[in-house]
Amino acid sequence: MNDKNPLLEVRDVTLTFGGVRALSNVKFSVNKGELFSIIGPNGAGKTSMLNCVSGRYNPNQGQIIFKGQDITKLRPNDRCTLGMGRTFQNLALFSHMTVLDNIMVGRHHLLKNNFITGPLYWFSGAQKEELTHRREVEDIIDFLEISHIRKSVAGTLSYGLRKRVELARAIALRPDLILLDEPMAGMNLEEKEDMARYINDLNEEWGMTVIMIEHDMGVVMDISHRVMVLDFGKKIAEGLPEEVMADPYVKKAYLGEEVDEETSVNDGKEKSA
């Protein structure tokens, strides 16, 4: 897919921690409607890249453009307001709250009242707005098939169900772009199949653009439109899933295979579809 006006554009992002480079001049773009996966060995910089996109980290160099706007210096909350949501590698739910309340938290950026207009708004439109938000949340609960746990306390649920609740909270904002950090980590085969189906439906039926970090290559190959590979903080490949997985540089990063410079599809350069 090529687009002159991508939804997200990362321009030569470099990130360092105390002199250690987590990311080195990484650049890529994601078009509206794509399901774009980032893969690579442990420590390759994948989560650091998502943290730069979501605003948890500020890159030392480079720019991040979202919907044509430079968001490099924007706070995470401001990026959410623009239409960006995410899940985390480690669960970040409110364990003492119910599933329903956790998902409702994901819609707080859409609330219209504030400390000045709040009292007046409560009498004029708050109840109607509350009903609208509840309706949206119920749609998400039905979509992710978690109606049976809607009133359960999040901390009492199995790991797989908590991952599903975290996805529900992330999509409660109805973001244009959702960032998924290892959404299937720690799941059994059945749970992975369900999660892959939900992510695919979010992309195809709900129209959400997805950037996903995932270690399960079967899932990556099955549902991704394009794939980017990081290794030691550098991009070593980008393109269609089958092309990237056939790249000798990628095989070397994952399997330690030697690279034949003459047969590499990348020939030391990035590959783009």
TrEMBL record:
<dbReference type="InterPro" id="IPR032823">
    <property type="entry name" value="BCA_ABC_TP_C"/>
</dbReference>
<dbReference type="InterPro" id="IPR051120">
    <property type="entry name" value="ABC_AA/LPS_Transport"/>
</dbReference>
<keyword id="KW-0547">Nucleotide-binding</keyword>
<dbReference type="GO" id="GO:0016887">
    <property type="term" value="F:ATP hydrolysis activity"/>
</dbReference>
<dbReference type="InterPro" id="IPR003439">
    <property type="entry name" value="ABC_transporter-like_ATP-bd"/>
</dbReference>
<dbReference type="GO" id="GO:0005524">
    <property type="term" value="F:ATP binding"/>
</dbReference>
<keyword id="KW-0813">Transport</keyword>
<dbReference type="InterPro" id="IPR027417">
    <property type="entry name" value="P-loop_NTPase"/>
</dbReference>
<dbReference type="Pfam" id="PF00005">
    <property type="entry name" value="ABC_tran"/>
</dbReference>
<dbReference type="InterPro" id="IPR003593">
    <property type="entry name" value="AAA+_ATPase"/>
</dbReference>
<dbReference type="GO" id="GO:0005886">
    <property type="term" value="C:plasma membrane"/>
</dbReference>
<dbReference type="Pfam" id="PF12399">
    <property type="entry name" value="BCA_ABC_TP_C"/>
</dbReference>
<keyword id="KW-0067">ATP-binding</keyword>
<protein>
    <submittedName>
        <fullName>ABC transporter</fullName>
    </submittedName>
</protein>
<feature type="domain" description="ABC transporter">
    <location>
        <begin position="8"/>
        <end position="257"/>
    </location>
</feature>
